[in-house]
């Protein structure tokens, strides 16, 4: 075979191999995209930068190496390249983005959720942040195989699969994220900044909005408490209590084993979630040693034998942002009718 035809063939191949990416980019709708290259093929993700800007800034910034990671990686080094899909659950999802490959690693910082009510886990191809609870987003993300409505409101959805769901379905645990390419189509996407300064600015804005919302909610709850329990005392820690029956004798000391009857309800809807009265037997524990929620320890150390109180306990003295057992939601105020039976 002569050299000329060979050169022509090479030229054609070069043109052919370069054309599809350009053509595909031109055919894309305006938006911000991420193409994840894997051993099984590529996954094209459309990112919701207009609905969840902080999360998208973080994802793109990590992918392109524009985020400061406390010296663990120099700026300009793509974070995701070379990491693995460390967790794959068939008919559920694939998860990646952990630098340790164990599911316990991250970029060295966390940031708040951006829960958008219109974005649902209503089918395959949903891109969302993995977390260890509210406000613990970092670098780990997952893509669904199917609808997972039980995750609604618990994870930030920030994109969806535009092409390559078959690749998502083929990914196996241990497969590598070879490269994440960010594609900007249209003026708005090109103008969308994804560096550390943009992240810090958006984070500050969200924190300010969160603080305003928390204050508004706290004021609403305070008003509710004052209307329902006008004689309630307010402690320095933030708890309210109303004495229903005075007790007699000494107060228990930390470490004393006490017997307590109680009924617990959620403040906002009054739903009862537990009661020792219903079981017909008080509970016993060492008070003041962290065996129970902080609000209980604080209140019971100031009660006397036979005393009955209503305790209105804020989340920071109860179960915080974790909630408990699927019964007490995150951030819940709790109301307990308690009786110090004996010690």
Describe this structure in words.
The longest helix has 33 residues, at 196-228. A hairpin with a 5-residue loop joins strand 11 (257-266) and strand 12. This protein has an eight-stranded antiparallel beta sheet. The termini are far apart. The protein is of the alpha+beta class and 343 residues long. The protein has helices at 3-27, 53-64, 165-170, 187-191, 196-228, 276-279, 294-300; strands at residues 31-38, 41-47, 87-89, 93-96, 126-129, 141-144, 157-163, 179-185, 233-234, 240-245, 257-266, 272-275, 283-286, 308-313, 334-342. The protein folds into two domains: 27-198, Cyclophilin-like (Cyclophilin, Beta Barrel), CATH 2.40.100; 227-342, Chitinase A, domain 3, CATH 3.10.50. 31% of the residues are buried. The chain is elongated, with a radius of gyration of 27 Å. The protein has seven helices and 15 strands.
CATH superfamily of the largest domain: Cyclophilin-like
Residue stretches low in confidence (pLDDT < 50, at least 5 long) are 1-23
Question: How would a crystallographer describe the biggest sheet?
Answer: 8 strands, antiparallel
β-sheet strand percentage: 15-25%
The tally of helices reads 7
Proportion of helical residues: 25-40%
Task: List the strand order in the largest sheet.
Answer: 3-4-6-5-7-2-1-8
Keywords:
25% strand; seven-stranded antiparallel beta sheet; alpha+beta; Chitinase A, domain 3; 343 residues; 27% helix; eight-stranded antiparallel beta sheet; Cyclophilin
């Amino acid at each position: 075979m002569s050299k000329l035809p060979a050169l022509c063939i090479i030229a054609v191949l070069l043109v052919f191999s370069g054309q599809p990416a350009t053509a595909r980019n031109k055919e894309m709708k305006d938006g911000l995209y991420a193409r994840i290259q894997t051993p099984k093929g590529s996954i094209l993700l459309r990112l919701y930068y207009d609905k969840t800007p902080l999360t998208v800034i973080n994802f793109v910034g990590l992918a392109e190496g524009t985020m400061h990671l406390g010296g663990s990686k120099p700026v300009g080094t793509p974070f995701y390249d070379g990491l693995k899909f460390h967790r794959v659950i068939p008919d559920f999802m694939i998860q990646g983005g952990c630098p340790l490959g164990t599911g316990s690693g991250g970029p060295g910082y966390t940031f708040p959720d951006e829960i958008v009510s219109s974005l649902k886990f209503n089918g395959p191809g949903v891109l969302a942040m993995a977390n260890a609870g509210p406000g613990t987003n970092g670098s780990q993300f997952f893509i669904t195989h199917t609808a997972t409505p039980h995750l609604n409101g618990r994870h930030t959805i920030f994109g969806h699969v535009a092409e390559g769901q078959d690749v998502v379905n083929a990914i196996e645990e241990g497969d590598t994220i070879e490269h994440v390419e960010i594609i900007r189509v249209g003026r708005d996407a090109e103008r969308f900044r994804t560096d550390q300064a943009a992240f810090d600015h958006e984070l500050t804005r969200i924190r300010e909005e969160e603080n305003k919302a928390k204050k508004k909610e706290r004021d609403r709850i305070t008003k509710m408490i004052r209307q329902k329990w006008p004689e309630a005392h307010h402690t320095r820690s933030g708890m309210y209590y109303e004495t229903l029956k005075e007790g007699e004798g000494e107060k228990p000391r930390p470490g004393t084993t006490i017997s307590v009857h109680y009924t617990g309800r959620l403040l906002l809807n009054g739903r009862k979630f537990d009661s020792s009265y219903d079981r017909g037997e008080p509970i016993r524990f060492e008070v003041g040693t962290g065996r129970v929620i902080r609000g209980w320890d604080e209140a019971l150390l100031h009660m006397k034998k036979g005393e009955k109180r209503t305790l209105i306990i804020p989340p920071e003295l109860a179960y915080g942002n974790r909630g408990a057992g699927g019964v007490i939601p995150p951030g819940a105020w709790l109301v307990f009718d308690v009786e110090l039976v004996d010690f």
